[in-house]
Automatic annotation (TrEMBL):
It holds the Pfam family Peptidase_S66. Residues 15-130 form the LD-carboxypeptidase N-terminal domain. This is Muramoyltetrapeptide carboxypeptidase. GO terms for molecular function: carboxypeptidase activity; serine-type peptidase activity. Residues 174-290 form the LD-carboxypeptidase C-terminal domain. SUPFAM superfamilies: Class I glutamine amidotransferase-like, LD-carboxypeptidase A C-terminal domain-like. InterPro entries: Carboxypeptidase_A_C_sf, Class_I_gatase-like, LdcA_N, Peptidase_S66_N, Peptidase_S66C, S66_fam. GO terms for biological process: proteolysis.
Length: 302
């Protein structure tokens, strides 16, 4: 099925910031609001920004109601998820995307927001995997923020090029981009939010996981057949990995390689995607080309 792309943002339009997962404060968002306004956008803060329920930005029904309101409000042209954490999967089955499908808008975020990125692709709609407002001004994130702006305003994506990596597997792949946080992709397997990987370029990243968890999740993707039809694989940041007292014996990238070796698709490592400052925006559902050769790896969105 062709993927539907929401209209590019225009100056003067309204965008909403919501928090479908962990709680956040308006004060933490103040720098991001200033940035969005400098882009010529009018910022609306959702009800969940003031929500506070243990770890969450309000109870599930409040966060769900807030997100639904932004989906249905025709004056809101993009929904920016303030931060990740945990909680988006608790809302997804209660959301109604019928009005959204008639007038799609950009939804942007990463990490826990992988649930939304995948769910929207399952509905044949593109979304943005990119830096979230709480992280707009982290040191070293200037290009990441620029790439988000380019994606929202419909400007050509900047090609991503990384140097050679010893685990790279050469080749050329074309296909739609799919992916995000490995833990979330594993969690939504078998649910209504699982998007097919077949014929697509999968990108992966993760944070603060035990190495044996990475192996367990990659094994699951392998055993469930999700890796079998990949066109290509892009490996981003695997940050702050943890190990047991008795070491697992392989780094995250080596674990991924042990499964990639079972297939013939090209693989590129060390892409600037994930839980580091250089988290470049990727449009999930966009057509892309991955080239891996002696010069390194290049990902170009079409």
């Amino acid at each position: 099925m062709p993927v539907l792309f929401p209209p590019a943002l225009q100056r003067g339009q309204r965008v909403a910031i919501v928090s479908p997962a962990r709680k956040i404060s308006a004060a933490e968002l103040a720098p991001a609001i200033e940035t969005l306004e400098s882009w010529g956008l009018e910022v609306v803060l959702g009800e969940s920004i003031a929500g506070d329920h243990h770890q969450f930005a309000g109870p599930d029904d409040l966060r769900r109601r807030d997100f639904q309101q932004q989906l249905d409000d025709s004056s809101i042209r993009a929904i920016l998820c303030a931060r990740g954490g945990y909680g988006t999967a608790r809302l997804i089955d209660g959301l109604d995307f019928s009005r959204f499908a008639q007038q799609p808008k950009w939804v942007a975020g990463f990490s826990d927001i992988t649930v939304l990125n995948s769910h929207l692709l399952r509905l044949d709609c593109a979304s943005i995997h990119g830096v979230m407002p709480v992280l707009f001004h982290q040191e070293g994130g200037e290009l990441a923020l620029k790439s988000l702006r380019r994606a929202l305003f419909g400007e050509a994506a900047l090609p991503l090029q990384v140097p050679p990596h010893p685990l790279n597997r050469p080749g050329t792949a074309t296909g739609q981009l799919v992916g995000g946080n490995l833990s979330l992709l594993h969690t939504i397997t078998g649910t209504a939010s699982q998007a097919s990987f077949a014929g697509r370029i999968l990108f992966l990243e993760d944070l603060d996981e035990y190495l044996y968890h990475i192996d367990r999740m990659m094994l699951h993707l392998h055993r469930s057949g999700q890796l079998a039809g990949l066109a290509g694989l892009v490996v981003g940041h695997f940050s702050q990995m943890r190990d047991n007292t008795v070491p697992f014996g392989s780094a995250a990238e080596e674990i991924i390689d042990s499964y990639a070796q079972l297939y013939g698709f090209p693989v590129g490592y060390s892409f600037p995607v994930g839980h580091e400052a250089d988290n470049m925006a990727l449009v999930v559902g966009s057509e892309a080309q991955l080239v891996v050769d002696a010069a390194g790896a290049r990902l170009t969105a079409r």
